């Protein structure tokens, strides 16, 4: 029965593993190349290769250039709609953010485990998404205080608030503002973790049912496998939506910093 | 009750939050579609707001997931 068969550990896929010996050490902590770092490099290289398709700026675009220009046009429109005046200077940042997250999410979904190369979704770690969120939040703070100085705090008081209400509204708005980097990073990493755990749990059903008996394989394994295919398609959608939401919220927050309201 | 059992029950109860988020996300997209079918011309311009609403509703469901994970693996 299933109790004796191998227990599938759905959290194992998120473990950071060192590759090779530590390269150097900082304050006694050995720093080694990890699977996370390797897949970050893979995402960067894949992104670079993708962008090379469309960097020639031909008048008559090739297919690759059309593809790249679709993405740049999409992000430019997003920024124009959400930041508005003075938003064009943030297009490179938001475009890099969007494409890096998108490539990371999609690379993590590749079924390379079939050939023994296990993809690692580094966006499923709060250390990575947290740093991305802090970068966005730092831009908001720096731009906000640079452009508006102390007036930046008027962001926390909506127009026409009566004075007694200001005392209540200000702390609430301040806390909700300070929670932004957490929610930004949390959303991406939990969405990735939840999807990958779901896929692994279903994969465990398929393997254990097939090992138990042909009857269980037919009753439990085959429907689970069909469900896995559907969930995989859903995960590709989620990978795109999460990258889009990250870029969208970053541009909204930058809008607040640029225009205050 | 055993502390370990209480943790697992708590994690199971946290899954209710995921169902609540499903109602929320369904409400966001359902209301959007309702409005979009009445005025298809204005629908494309509101896609940003659609995803902001989706992100806000989804985040609260994901927080329920975080609570479950903390109960199982951390607490």
UniProtKB/TrEMBL annotation, chain B:
It is found in: Cell membrane; Membrane. The keyword Transport applies. It holds the Pfam family ATP-synt_C. The chain crosses the membrane at residues 6-29, 50-74. Residues 9-71 form the V-ATPase proteolipid subunit C-like domain. One of its GO terms (molecular function) is proton-transporting ATP synthase activity, rotational mechanism. The record marks 58 as: Reversibly protonated during proton transport. It is a multi-pass membrane protein. GO terms for cellular component: plasma membrane; proton-transporting ATP synthase complex; proton-transporting two-sector ATPase complex, proton-transporting domain. Keywords: ATP synthesis, Cell membrane, CF(0), Hydrogen ion transport, Ion transport, Lipid-binding, Membrane, Transmembrane, Transmembrane helix, Transport. The keyword Acetylation does not apply. HAMAP family: ATP_synth_c_bact (MF_01396). Belongs to the ATPase C chain family. PANTHER family: ATP SYNTHASE LIPID-BINDING PROTEIN, MITOCHONDRIAL, ATPASE PROTEIN 9. Key component of the F(0) channel; it plays a direct role in translocation across the membrane. A homomeric c-ring of between 10-14 subunits forms the central stalk rotor element with the F(1) delta and epsilon subunits. This is ATP synthase subunit c.
């Amino acid at each position: 029965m299933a109790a004796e068969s191998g227990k599938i550990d759905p959290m194992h896929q998120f473990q950071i593993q060192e590759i090779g010996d530590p390269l150097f050490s900082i304050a006694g902590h050995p720093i080694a190349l990890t699977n996370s770092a390797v897949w970050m490099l893979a995402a960067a290289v894949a992104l670079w290769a993708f962008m090379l398709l469309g960097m020639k700026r031909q008048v008559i675009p090739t297919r690759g250039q059309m593809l790249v220009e679709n993405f740049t046009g999409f992000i430019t429109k997003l920024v124009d709609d959400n930041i508005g005046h003075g938003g064009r200077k943030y297009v490179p940042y938001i475009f890099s953010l969007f494409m890096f997250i998108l490539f990371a999410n999609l690379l993590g979904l590749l079924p390379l485990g079939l050939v023994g190369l296990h993809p690692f979704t580094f966006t499923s770690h709060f250390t990575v998404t947290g740093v991305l969120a802090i970068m966005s939040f730092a831009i908001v703070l720096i731009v906000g205080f640079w452009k508006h100085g102390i007036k930046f705090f008027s962001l926390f008081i909506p127009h026409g608030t009566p004075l007694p209400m200001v005392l209540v509204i200000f702390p609430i708005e301040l806390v909700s503002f300070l929670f932004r980097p957490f929610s930004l990073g949390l959303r991406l990493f939990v969405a990735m973790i939840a999807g990958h755990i779901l896929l692994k749990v279903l994969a465990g059903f398929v393997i254990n049912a097939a090992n138990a008996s042909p009857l269980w394989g037919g009753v439990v394994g085959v429907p689970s496998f069909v469900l896995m295919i559907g969930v995989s398609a859903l995960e590709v959608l989620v990978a795109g939506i999460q990258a889009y939401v990250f870029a969208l919220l970053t541009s909204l927050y930058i809008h607040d910093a640029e225009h205050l309201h | 009750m055993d502390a370990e059992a209480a943790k697992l029950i708590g994690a199971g109860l946290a899954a209710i939050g995921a169902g609540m988020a499903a109602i929320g996300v369904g409400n966001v997209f359902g209301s959007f579609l309702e409005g979009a079918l009445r005025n298809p011309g204005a629908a494309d311009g509101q896609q940003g707001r659609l995803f902001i609403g989706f992100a806000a509703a989804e985040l609260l469901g994901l927080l329920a997931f975080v609570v479950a994970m903390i109960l199982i693996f951390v607490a």
